Amino acid sequence: MTDISLKVLIENSNLMVFSLDTESGLFEQANHAFRFFQEVQGPLQNIQDLADRLPLEDRDLLQARLLAVEHSPIEATIVRFPTGQGQVYLELNMYPYSESGISKIAGYARDVTQQTEFQQTILSHNSMKNAILNILSHDLVGSLAILEKLAVLALETSGRKEGDPLVPILSSMEEMCRSNAGLIRGFLRKEFLSSMGAPLNRVRTELTDTLKDFMGQFASMAEECGISVLYEPAKTPVHLFIDQDKLIQSLNNLLSNALKFTPRGGEVRVWVECDQHLVTICVRDTGIGIPPELKDRVFDKFSSSKRTGLNGEEPHGMGLWAVKTMVEWMGGDIRVDSTEGQGTEFRIELPITQS
User: Fold this and answer.
1) Which of 18, 108, 198, 308 is deepest in the core (most CB within 10 A)?
2) Secondary structure of residue 106 in the 3-state scheme
3) Cβ atoms < 10 Å from Cβ of 346
4) Cα distance between residue 107 and residue 342, in whole Å
């Protein structure tokens, strides 16, 4: 491919291709797509003009990445660019090079608004689906466990006398309750583990809005269980590079556990703490707590610390191990503190990074 054909290709590309002088920040070259973007959104003479149009958090991110661009190219960094109709999401890619001893940057931007908003919609629907499944399973499995116990009690009271027409009916009722409860638990376990098996997809995520949507869906349905679910967001926006789906699935599992071991009239609180290096998501319930001898084993795979829920929900011993595994994949950690008879608190700690 000749230099001329390459220039033709760049000029007619849908990508917004540009080059800039590192010292001055001035855009020196721009293809048709980038010039058209400026015509629609307003002039951008230099990279600082672009940065000034971004929200504060995105501006800080871009400036931090630019300071390190000589050693670490900027790749797939998504920023929000406000427009008269709302905002667009731009994916920025920039690479350093030298020309006649002068440091320069070549790069391109592309509009990923449609993909980003589609992904956000999918995550929102997944959150709603997970919340509905867990609340329904909590109610259904609990009701089936009670019916099974009533059937067993009735059979024992009757003495299981031969010829008693109620005995086969009650026996069938007991077996159907046990079988259907097992079917529901098996489906949820498969759903959880299949999401865990998906590849890690870390993207820059605004945590406050992500949790707000999920917690709003979960809290409204948890009221049906007679348990209050409260969410206290961080006071300022929090941006993290995480796999949103795996984080939501991890929180979904923690909240499901909280509902299993918290009696009606109890409370589950979720809040976010931040410092310079860490974001901590806390989940605390007022349930039955964890006995001291089991606390050290709650994150073990197929843990011997597994317990039946207050409404008879059977454990499978992998939930908290899977949560810990996914949190560690995202570079984080999870801790537990519990007092038997008073409740349990889980703390997911995630690092604040710029890459």
Assistant:
1) 18
2) strand
3) 26
4) 56
